[in-house]
Design a protein that fits this description.
17% strand; binds 1-deoxynojirimycin; alpha/beta; six-stranded mixed beta sheet; 22 helices; 730 residues
Length: 730
């Protein structure tokens, strides 16, 4: 009788199946699992022959034949299944392939860029968005997304700030968890879930000058307290893969760092998934000049802890020799292969290797998915100014001019990294505005000459001007030296403002821009990021009051490029404010250090207005002191004091007053979105315990140091309603 090999028996434990499979593999087959292959039109036969002979860890779905920019060819599910069939049916052991693709903020239904999603301060809704992204991507044969990007960014010149959650470790951690749970769910073997990848590990956002791929120098204390938390949150949420970054950090390339990958990530954080390099980041170790050649690159990256190599072939070409020469151990090979196989079993790929070609048409861009995209886009937009309650606008009885360089754009709605979103499914702002208020809106097209735009504006009662950046002005290696609006826009806005008509400026952008000049002349400003497929409809919803803005800034908005880096959670200095002591003031102020610009940002982290107003009162703590193993409850009453229903994000900040190392003046440690009717009140409570009050000290250990803490609750990072409590020694 022919018995099934143990690894093919789904009733056995994953560990047992992996062990059995590993024991049957040749060294070549093992090394093939450590390779992510790139099939291009010129190497298809070669790739297929390789898979037939050895199997392969993964195939990256990238390249000009596949990557769309709004209208190109969609992924061919039959083609993906054909590669899978070769692996499963024609290779000796039949190990299925992982198909990886950049599904960054949606697959076909595009959600706001991740920075915009972070501005919702609504992790539950963000989880829903990633659940949809997973459902759509899996229906097209993708079972692994290279997201979420968890790099903290304190420099808006850096184009990749668009792809992450901004400057704050706590907010980014909540978003990391939401994305991982959205992609992977509770059970990775669910066919509608896919593998997530936490990237780019680590400190990639710290690139000097905002220049992508550039060197970062980050002290270990800052690395652990600021850059690590989102990765820790992703690991705790069960993320199955992590991508090592391109850059060099503290003199060591991130893709060659044993300390970062093996000691910190796999050791301290107990990450049991596998690490993939970034695109060619293994072979680029040669360019970093820490190794002489690709053989050296393979040795360094692999022994450092990179389990799978993206696209380049240093592992495939050199690992066998490195094992035979004793420079790389077989144990390390088995460790890496075991990590990758475990994920493949967890995904249920051995039981269900093929994508179902009939599903996609019912799932992609379905009405239900569009509804979530519209809601999250509305929640992501931040109302920065609304003088005289100019917004919301009336839909009838007024003439509203719609103008500016962004009104007829589609790609700029979608933003960076939208390989599979379709332009023809993306309404323009002009179309959405006209649809929302056909009697009021007058289009003054973006290609009109500027003098004609002014003449058109003269005829209107209200002007809405759509400013900002193209989708290609942020994202990978799309950095800017100045965060001012693109050339000419400020002048045009100022010229329009001089007409003396009420002026609303809506900004589409992938980063915080310098709005100082716009803020001086516009009556209202709505910051819309790149809001996704339903972004234009969401903008119209907010401008016409179908919904009330509730987004909050996930990054500080500087007054000028020269203030960068600018973040609210800066460390106490010897000449700051807020000295120690029970009686010290609770106020929070930026110190003026430049002669030519105030020390504060134009808009602080956490800031965002509404069409209604909220007041906070009755801050209380349930006890004046706690032991390190206890939790303190901080409560506040929130009341909607305005005339419209609306949502507000209540934020809780903490300061450790005296510590063994210099600590931030305040740090976000909790937030809650509340939705209140006019006149309605609600008590909001935050719990603070060891997790929120501890930090990594100079000895690299996490510690909660007894002493005084300050706590504030408010609607942005300048919150002034606060009190103090003590943590006492047990
Ligand atoms: C390079 C980028 O840095 C990374 O974020 C992306 O996932 C890979 N390319 C694959 O496209």
């Amino acid at each position: 009788m022919h018995t099934l090999p143990l690894y093919k028996n789904p009733s056995l434990s994953i560990d047992r199946r992996v062990e059995d499979l590993l024991s049957r593999m040749t060294l070549e087959e093992k090394i093939a699992q450590l390779y992510q292959i790139w099939a291009r039109p010129d190497n298809i036969d070669e790739v297929k022959a390789f898979i037939r002979r050895y199997g392969v860890g993964s195939r990256i779905l990238a390249g000009s034949n596949l990557a769309g920019s709004g209208q190109e060819k969609a992924l061919e599910i039959e083609e993906i299944n054909e590669y899978q069939r070769i692996a499963v049916e024609e290779s000796r052991l039949g190990i299925p392939i992982l198909f990886g693709r950049d599904v960054i903020h949606g697959y076909r239904t595009i959600f706001p860029i991740p920075l915009g999603m972070a501005a919702t301060f609504d992790p539950e809704l963000v989880e829903q968005a990633y659940t949809i992204a997973a459902r759509e991507a899996s229906s097209a044969g993708v079972n692994w997304s290279f997201a979420p990007m968890l790099d903290i960014a304190r420099d808006p010149r850096w184009g990749r700030i668009a792809e992450g959650s901004g400057e704050d470790p706590y907010l980014a951690s909540q978003m990391a968890r939401a994305a991982v749970l959205g992609f992977q769910g509770k059970d990775l073997s669910d066919p509608e879930r896919i593998l997530a990848c936490a990237k780019h590990y680590i400190g990639y956002g710290g690139a000097e000058g905002g220049r992508d791929y550039n060197t970062a120098e980050i002290t270990d204390v800052t690395l652990r307290n600021i850059y690590l938390p989102p990765f820790k949150a992703a690991v705790e949420a069960g993320v199955g893969s992590v991508m090592s970054a391109f850059h060099d950090i503290n003199g060591e390339p991130a893709s060659g760092s044993h300390y970062l990958l093996t000691e910190l990530l796999k050791g301290e954080l107990k990450f049991t998934g596998f690490v993939i390099s970034d695109w060619a980041s293994v072979s680029e170790l040669v360019h970093h000049r820490v190794v002489e050649d690709e053989r050296g690159a393979a040795r360094l990256a692999f022994t450092a802890g990179v389990d799978m190599e993206m696209v380049t072939q240093t592992y495939v070409n050199h690992l066998k020799d490195l094992v035979e020469s004793g420079e790389v151990s077989l144990e390390r090979i088995d460790d890496a292969v075991q990590r990758i196989l475990t994920v493949k079993f967890r995904l249920g790929l051995f039981e269900h290797p093929y994508a179902d070609a009939t599903k996609a048409s019912q799932i992609l861009f379905s009405p239900g998915h569009q509804q979530v995209a519209r809601q999250i886009a509305r929640e992501s937009m931040v109302l920065l100014k609304n003088q005289g309650n100019l917004l919301p606008l009336k839909k009838t009885g007024v003439k509203i001019a719609v103008m500016g360089p962004l009104v007829n754009q589609r790609a700029a709605l979608l933003g960076s990294w939208t390989l599979d979103g379709l332009l023809h499914e993306t309404q323009t702002v002009a179309e959405a505005m006209q649809q929302a208020a056909p009697d009021a809106v007058r289009l003054a097209s973006s290609d009109a000459l500027q003098d004609e735009m002014l003449a058109e504006a003269m005829k209107a009662d209200v002007i809405t001007f759509f400013a900002g950046e193209s989708d290609g002005r942020s994202g990978e290696n799309h950095n800017v030296a100045s965060i001012d609006l693109p050339a000419g826009q400020e002048e045009l806005i100022e010229a329009i403002a001089r007409l003396g008509k009420p002026l609303v400026v809506v900004v589409l952008a992938g980063r915080p821009l310098n709005l100082s000049r716009v803020a001086r002349c516009a009556d209202a400003i709505l910051y819309a990021w790149h809001p996704g497929s339903l972004g234009a409809a969401a903008i119209a919803d907010l401008l016409f009051g179908e919904d009330v803005p509730s987004g909050k800034l996930p990054a500080s908005f500087p007054r000028t490029t020269g203030q960068i880096p600018m973040h609210y959670n800066f460390n106490s200095t010897g000449r700051s404010f807020n000295a120690v002591g029970e009686t010290s003031p609770l106020e929070y102020a930026y110190v003026d250090r430049y002669l030519d610009v105030p020390g504060s940002p134009l808009y602080p982290f956490g800031f965002g207005l509404s069409y209604t107003t909220f007041s906070l009162s009755d801050l209380s703590i349930d006890r004046p002191e706690i032991h390190p193993d206890e939790v303190i409850c901080v409560s506040v009453q929130v009341t909607n004091t305005g005339s419209r229903p609306g949502a507000e994000v209540i934020q809780c900040y903490v300061q450790d007053c005296v510590a063994s190392i210099t600590r931030p003046v305040r740090e976000l440690k909790g937030f809650t979105r509340v939705y209140l009717q006019p006149g309605e009140s609600q008590i909001v409570t935050f719990q603070l315990g060891a997790e929120e009050l501890s930090f990594y000290g100079a000895d690299r250990r996490r510690r909660l140091e007894p002493g005084m803490f300050k706590v504030w609750v408010g609607t942005d990072s300048t919150a002034s309603l606060g009190t103090t409590f003590r943590v006492i020694k047990s």
